[in-house]
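agent> Task received from the user: take the single chain below, predict its 3D structure, and emit structure tokens. No templates, no multimer pairing.
agent> Plan: (1) validate residues, (2) run structure prediction, (3) serialize to tokens, (4) report one or two observations.
agent> Step 1 OK, no nonstandard residues flagged.
tool_call: predict_structure(input=
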Amino acid sequence: MKKYVIQQRIRSITDISIVDQSNPGTFSLEGIDFKQEFTFEHGPMGNYWFATFQIETNTWQEAQEIFFQRLQRIVSRISIIGQGYINFVTEPYLITSNQLPNSGIFRFVKDSGHVGLSLLDEGKVALEKLLSDIIVPDEFYLYWNDATNTTGYSAKLLLMLAAVESIVRVRDKNIFDRPEDISKKIFGDDLFKEIFNPQTGLRNRLSHGEYLIATDRTKDYVKEIHTKVIQFLNSEILKAVLLHEDVTGPQRSFFENKAGWFGFIKKVNPDDGNEMLLKDVLECFEKENDKSLYNTVTSAEFKILKELF
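)
tool_result: status=success, residues=309
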């Protein structure tokens, strides 16, 4: 068994204001220590918390999955208690191991600006055709617009599927006798089963209070559903490829845009005796070309570290 320490940044509009004069701005639950920067002059500071978790497991992936599940349970409850934004899924983390105390697996994330899109000539043609079309109802576009403007993954999925179901609801029953007939037309048999299977389907589980499970995170359902719907509109409604089917990063928005990097890092000075802290690593990487404390590894080193870690 290997001992792992996982440090995760959490972005939250809620401050840790728990009264504890001996260790203010902190609390612990289910083996996870939470900390927010704090001074007695200003109180809790900034929009970030740091969560730290230690565990002994066989692999870092197993350690991270256990941590993810525990942190997800806690953060989702803080969301309703604090009644404001809190998220860790798209934030940076650092995993260290007693096997390699001077190296770590690091995901660096920073906010970035949005990349715009263009309404071109064929887009105007598509707009005119979609406005005159009577097959796809207005509800579809209203739901789809809400989905596009939503950043949460499960919320986006539910809204996208509600949009599709609005098409199913007003389908031509002379052509599509059963509701599943048009859904299969849009998604194809395999994706249809993954989404609409009565027992295991993603849509049914989400709609009936069963949240995403680990295996759901192995596939980007938002991207797959988006692509299938665009292809359906082109082939069945517009009768021409007027909507681009290969847009990079579809459903872009002004919000929650991230840029980052994932891989191994190592101390520049392995003999300094300092613990690797996510806060320090982030400060180093947020300064352009600052490699005084930590550095990335070569591809050859990466292969070696991956085996040992």
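agent> Step 4: summary for the user.
The longest helix spans residues 60-82.
agent> Done.
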